[in-house]
């Protein structure tokens, strides 16, 4: 059977996924390991090194990488649609099964491991892609701009009003002490704490929904134009995207981190969130542009070997990150919740990421799918996926959530 170019695996997509896993890991690790970060407040009396580490994570990782993952989700949707059409399958039925699989995996992830799950949001909000799959690329870009623009302006305005109100709220010390006791207790107390946090986690998903939807639509437009396929984007375009993204995104990120972590005082906190969210897509785009430029450089082959295997196992690696960090943090294992500074957590995240890069490379040499990818694929296809074996260049891009 003839294989269409549009259905081939795209190294750029996998490489971007693999790179984005590092950003997701640094943000999630900080929240999993620290009650102050999970409550969204500064840790009083934190050493300077920990303050600097948390400032860097807030500025250059928080709110940036989930947008990049969401963009890739939208891009991959176009590949999955082509794959379903090639197989003669019902696109709607296949994607609905995939969405159900994401929701189920997300519920298990949120209850057993990390309440800051994104899979449930992808499973539900991804239905918008199904409804809009025939939309023109230009219309999708306009929709994304309107969705995120209105959301960002509204959030920034509310942040400004909150700053003028200057209504300072004391740190929820009792909540922090309760969470520390729960995560240091037993497996049962960990599960109860995650269940107690689930409603707030779902509220957080609602707040993220406009950004996720906007990134979905941008990814959908990019997929229809095959911008991540070989030769899809010109070097001049990537340079322009990277430059503009840095010029707009870095000042916003600096203000966001300064309001959240200092030196600005707490009255700037909500305005910082608004400005940070409004400018986050620019920095996300700059990251993507920079990675794509490096893939076209003399470093390209080495970067592909480094990031592509991890990107092919993005779902397994995403869940694995939560499993490892929850083992370190809670009564599942070492019970170090609230006892490790942000700088040490950042080093730990780097070590976990390096381990995942190595394991992903070894795994993809022998197997076509990761364990979580295999399960999601089985749900999506309503049947057993293809035989084991390394992924081939002609294999369609898998139905990944990231």
From TrEMBL:
Keywords: Membrane, Transmembrane, Transmembrane helix. This is DUF418 domain-containing protein. The keyword Transmembrane applies. InterPro entries: Bact_Transport_Assoc, DUF418. The lineage of its organism: Bacteria, Bacillati, Actinomycetota, Actinomycetes, Kitasatosporales. Residues 222-381 form the DUF418 domain. The chain crosses the membrane at residues 12-32, 52-75, 95-112, 118-136, 143-165, 200-220, 241-262, 268-295, 315-334, 340-359. It holds the Pfam family DUF418.
